[in-house]
TrEMBL record:
Residues 13-242 form the Cytochrome b/b6 N-terminal region profile domain. It comes from Actinomadura namibiensis. It is an enzyme of class 7 (translocase). Residues 523-550 are annotated as: Disordered. One of its GO terms (molecular function) is metal ion binding. PROSITE patterns: CYTB_NTER (PS51002). This is Cytochrome bc1 complex cytochrome b subunit. It is found in: Cell membrane. Signal peptide: none annotated. The chain crosses the membrane at residues 46-65, 111-130, 142-162, 206-228, 266-284, 334-355, 375-395, 407-431. Its EC number is 7.1.1.8.
């Protein structure tokens, strides 16, 4: 076992700090923090690193970007737009692209980092969901995560609105429509954000306001939340994937220093390298192609960044419903698509950990993750949500799809209107079946062993395949399903249901509870050989960490 001690080079500064702050205990404890070794824990790190890249590249952009709606005539080196009347904001974004050394690279790095940030957040969230890592005690981090996700979307929207080109204006036009459709407060929100009528009118404060929100307020809040997210994670420790050694009370993995520190440092550089390569070679948001925003121009096939696609899609397939009562118009055609899909996905995600706890009655602390197949209802619901999101996202490109596949635009709209309801249900059913199929396979391996590929002939001439017992590690992963069920407090030994199973809500709860465990296929140990769960019967008091050195 390796001891995590400070290297010679940092001993001096550490001693200096220790003399003043008494920090040795702090460093000793935290340098030894154990990190799990599963690849999927890297997804959160990609989010963290792309956020750092956003902060750095964004700061570079602020040096030249002019958040001003004052009109000017472009006179930079992009000849096609020379003499064109535009805002100073747009002219400065063009200046960054063509006349500042490394400017275009930085703009593209910033934009690619934003894409990677949102994509990694989504992948990270799915990892956390499908493994059940949000369960007690990590519900708080789940909620903080959702907050950062929402803010990331708004931050991106405001970011790509800043250059004030044709695409920016198209997005802002929609943003204003959505803001105004909100009952009671809509006109105020629109006024605070836009400062006046948009697009015709006095909305000169818009870009300066978006700028303040984009470079100061929102990144500040995200930074605060990321810090809280990391501190909570550090305090609670990571969850772990079920392995032979892993128990609910011990975490196995590599120590922070030196193994994880080296790995994560390299990982930051790797993430930065990928974003820099994308920024250098893959064009993104070529604002010079479209010219300044012109409300009269038809900007067909314009799409927002991918993380806003769900809103775009739901707007496109929504029927034209409006209610006018007492002199007020309620624009359901904008309000529903703006609020409902995100409400379903984010609201659903926010209550899910608590709903699951209520249904299953499982209030235990969970440090070992579930394999997705072992929680078929959760995995099914997750896939239904992913499908719902994906269909709306695709609907945001219905014009492009219609053009590429030579279909009528109306046909694509109707197709998505039907699919958004049908596909999630199908996704749930298919996913649940696949999970149960995989459980059956696990149960077969656990009781009969693994196919060895060796065919044996019996004395009476019959051929059969010999099955070898599964390895200890594999058996332990398979049996993690049954281990997870231990102590599940659904009903007491006499079958008396848990206290909140009475009344109408109790009825709903017990039906949901039955659905949760329905069809469950027990995985039993095979009859010949070791038990394979790797537990020697020693329980470790408290939640200690354990390091394994290699
Ligand atoms: C989560 C964090 C952030 C996200 C998702 C984000 C996203 C974006 C996006 C998508 C753009 C449009 C880029 C383009 O023109 O193609 C943008 C522009 C910009 N961002 Fe950010 N950004 C973030 C943080 C920051 C920070 C912290 C700063 C400054 C300290 C910043 C400063 C800027 C500036 C000045 C522009 C306008 C420059 C231009 O578009 O050429 N951003 N941002
Ligand atoms: C700015 C965005 C985010 C950053 C930088 C971030 C970063 C991280 C990191 C580095 C970890 C530890 C490693 C890992 O488990 O991958 C983590 C854990 C966690 N994150 Fe995030 N995250 C973000 C967004 C989210 C979102 C959107 C959610 C869920 C809605 C979420 C929920 C969690 C939970 C529950 C854990 C603990 C998981 C465990 O211990 O297995 N995070 N986060």
């Amino acid at each position: 076992m390796s001891e995590a001690t400070a290297p010679k080079a940092v001993e001096g500064p550490l001693n200096f700090l220790d003399d003043r702050l008494g920090s040795t205990t702090f460093f000793n404890r935290n340098l030894k923090k154990v990190f799990p070794d599963h690849w999927s824990f890297m997804l959160g790190e990609i989010a963290l690193y792309s956020f750092i890249i956003l902060l750095l590249s964004g700061t570079f952009l602020t040096l030249w970007f002019h958040p001003s709606m004052m009109e000017t005539h472009y006179d930079g080196s992009y000849t096609k737009l020379q003499g064109v009347k535009m805002s100073e904001a747009y002219a400065s974004a063009l200046h960054i692209s063509f006349d500042v050394r490394g400017g275009l690279l930085m703009r593209q790095i910033h934009h690619w980092a934003a894409i990677l940030f949102m994509a990694s957040i989504m992948a990270h969230m799915l990892r956390v969901f499908f493994t059940g890592a949000y369960r007690k005690p990590r519900e708080l981090n789940w909620l903080i995560g959702l907050g950062m996700f929402t803010l990331g979307m708004v931050e991106g929207l405001f970011g790509y609105s800043l250059p004030d080109d044709l695409l920016s204006g198209t997005g802002l036009r929609i943003t204003q429509g959505v803001a105004q459709s909100i009952p009671l407060v809509g006109t105020y929100i629109s006024m605070f954000l836009f400062g006046g009528e948009f697009p015709e009118g006095n909305y000169g404060d818009l870009i300066p306001r978006l700028f303040t929100l984009h470079v100061l307020l929102i990144p500040g809040i995200i930074l605060g939340l990321v810090t809280a997210h990391m501190m909570i994670m550090w305090h609670q420790k990571h969850t772990a994937m079920p392995t032979q050694k892993q128990t609910e009370k011990q975490v196995y993995g590599y120590p922070f220093y030196p193994v994880f520190m080296a790995k994560t440092g390299a990982y930051f550089l790797f993430t930065f390298g990928v974003v820099a390569l994308l920024g250098a070679f893959a064009q993104i948001n070529p604002i010079w192609l479209f010219g300044p925003y012109d409300p009269g121009a038809i900007s067909s096939a314009s799409q927002p960044d991918f993380y806003m696609g769900i809103l775009e899609g739901s707007l496109r397939i929504m029927p034209n419903w409006e209610i006018t009562a007492a002199g007020h118009t309620l624009s359901l055609n904008v309000l529903i698509p703006a609020l409902l899909p995100l409400g379903i996905v984010f609201g659903g995600a926010a209550i899910w950990p608590f709903l699951e706890q209520w249904v299953t009655g499982d209030k235990r602390h969970h440090n070992v993750n579930d394999r997705p197949r072992n929680a078929p209802v959760r995995t099914g619901v997750g896939m239904a949500a992913v499908t719902f999101y994906g269909v709306l996202w695709l609907a945001g490109a219905n014009d492009v799809l219609a053009e590429r596949f030579h279909l009528s635009l109306f046909a694509t709209t109707w197709f998505f209107r039907a699919t958004v309801f049908i596909a999630p249900v199908l996704a749930y059913i298919i996913t649940k079946r696949i999970c149960l199929g995989l459980q059956r396979k696990d149960a077969a391996i656990a009781s009969h062993g693994v196919e060895s590929g060796i065919i044996v002939m019996s004395p009476d001439g019959k051929f059969s395949e010999r099955h070898e017992p599964a390895s200890q590690e594999q058996m332990s992963v398979l049996l993690s399903k049954e281990r997870a069920k231990e102590q599940a407090p659904v009903a007491d030994a006499n079958g008396i249901p848990a206290p909140n199973s009475k009344g109408p809500m109790g009825y709903v709860r017990s039906r949901l509870q039955r659905a949760w465990t329905f069809d469950d296929i027990p995985v039993e140990k095979h009859d010949h050989g070791h038990d394979g769960d790797g537990h020697d019967g020693h329980e470790v008091e408290g939640r200690e960490t354990k390091q394994i050195s290699h």
